[in-house]
Design a protein that fits this description.
The protein is an all-alpha fold. It is built from 3 helices and no strands. The protein has a single domain, classed as Chorismate mutase (Chorismate Mutase Domain, subunit A, Up-down Bundle), CATH 1.20.59.10.
């Protein structure tokens, strides 16, 4: 069990690193959208991305990431 938990901890650390990287990209997108007068929500893109995912748990994760990204974009703009 300890070995499995260590693997989870290592994976979580990498996920958080990637999440921080993603949110920096989201910040850049927010600035672009602000500069070009674009809306934060692109419902068609979100729908397209989510429908391409077969696993419902992966869909939920991606939907949560998109929701967090929109909230962050709002705070940036």
């Amino acid at each position: 069990m300890d070995e499995l938990r260590a693997k989870i901890d290592k994976t979580d650390k990498e996920l958080l690193r990637l999440f921080k990287e993603r949110m920096e990209i989201v910040r850049q997108i927010a600035l672009y959208k602000k500069e070009h007068g674009l809306p934060i929500l692109d419902a068609a893109r979100e729908r397209e991305k989510l429908t391409a995912i077969d696993c419902p748990y992966e869909q939920k994760l991606c939907a949560a990431l998109m929701e967090l990204s929109r909230a962050y974009q709002e705070s940036v703009i």
